[in-house]
Amino acid sequence: MIRVVLADDQVLVRAGFRLLLDTEDGFEVVGEAGDGAEAVRLAHEHHPDVVVMDIRMPGTDGLEATRRVKAELPDVKVLVLTTFNVDEYVFEALKSGASGFLLKDTDPVELLHALRVVAQGDALLAPSVTRRLIEEFAARPEHRRPDPAALRELTAREREVLALVAGGLSNEEIADHLVISPATSRTHVSRVMVKLGARDRAQLVVLAYESGLVTPRRA
């Protein structure tokens, strides 16, 4: 059973999500929040598997709420909702600890899939629209940093794997691209995460773009 807290200032949006999850086996909505502060409070109270977090909310917004949830309850996953007109927040959401994000007009089946993926501890970064939003924002000069020392500890193959992760490829897709086994692909990704001190694939994407290892055109 995946336990979910819904955080959105629009009552109708929350009602729609609740209706969807209440009619689907394997999900339980344990709380609804109309703002970020309430989302943080409910996360402490219920310790859900996933908080579905809107970005634009009154008072404490979704980005600050995500930072607080991940700092205070690191085991709780956050799935951020966004729209095309706020895509500048996407990269900040990932930096804040979100495990992924979806557009608000996402198909219900995709939302259910996303919740399952995030609850399992993976990052939802594969959809092409998601990659496009990340790339557009990450390419901005103010978010580029010098190559961190940790990157120099990676082997050439590990740097290649990191670039493919940043491009949104799954372990299986990386294996196909590099003509290696899926097990070897998983091992490479795990080693990169350990060397860079990344908690998940989302952080790997952030590190790859911030360091300049990956640029939109190369990804």
TrEMBL record:
InterPro entries: CheY-like_superfamily (IPR011006), NreC/VraR/RcsB-like_REC (IPR058245), Sig_transdc_resp-reg_receiver (IPR001789), Tscrpt_reg_LuxR_C (IPR000792), WalR-like (IPR039420). Gene3D superfamilies: 3.40.50.2300. Residues 3-119 form the Response regulatory domain. The keyword DNA-binding applies. SUPFAM superfamilies: CheY-like (SSF52172). GO terms for molecular function: DNA binding. Residues 147-212 form the HTH luxR-type domain. The modification 4-aspartylphosphate is found at residue 54. GO terms for biological process: phosphorelay signal transduction system; regulation of DNA-templated transcription. PROSITE patterns: HTH_LUXR_2, RESPONSE_REGULATORY. Keywords: DNA-binding, Phosphoprotein, Transcription, Transcription regulation. PANTHER family: TRANSCRIPTIONAL REGULATORY PROTEIN NARL-RELATED (PTHR43214:SF24), TWO-COMPONENT RESPONSE REGULATOR (PTHR43214). This is LuxR family two component transcriptional regulator. It comes from Saccharothrix variisporea.
